[in-house]
């Protein structure tokens, strides 16, 4: 099971493009409102939780630094490589200070992380081009730090009722078909694990299979109007994974599938074109990350689609 060359090329262009500077197309560009609001929340949380939860505060400081860099990338640089005065560090500090957002100073770090994660998904349609990869990685980091998986947009889909907007499916149909094939392969892979799992581990595998089956239902229902629906294969080659034979190898195997699926949906969100597909991909990435056996362990930022 190998990602299509077209998909790999698309994300390669996306990632490489995110490092390029716009050469001062606007004389006095303003910091992007959506990114600035996200940065303001990160800055506030980093300060509020500095003494009560140092690890979470450090994560939010890291998020803030990433968002500042992204805001300035979106602003663009002048021909001499310098930032326009409207987006330099002092101007950006002022914009972040003025940004308006709701924050409960009595909230716990987990509650704050959950709110921040929800806002990332809700903001998907307003993010600048090239900013989705950062948003997806930050979302997964927040979930790994204790945020509840988002219940915004696609995260609330009932597979028996809801589907992606038909207009959005037409635009992101190829990506949705690829995602459906991926989910088929993961259900097959998890099925292998049921033979060597028992007790609570087996229940976790079965619950995971149910969750992926729900995704399959959503994708199938959404793609049905296109008339092109990939079918599950009778078997999938999963050579990169060590086959499970006992409890420990089964746990390791399931974790490898989980991490690759998280990476897959992060990359899919980064390449998404329409709002509902962005929201759904972000939700699936976060939901998969929420299944990590060791919450709080940082997940390395994704830069490319995982190989199968």
UniProtKB/TrEMBL annotation:
Residues 175-289 form the DUF4439 domain. SUPFAM superfamilies: Ferritin-like. Residues 1-21 form the signal peptide. Keywords: Signal. The keyword Nucleus does not apply. It comes from the Bacteria. The keyword Signal applies. This is DUF4439 domain-containing protein.
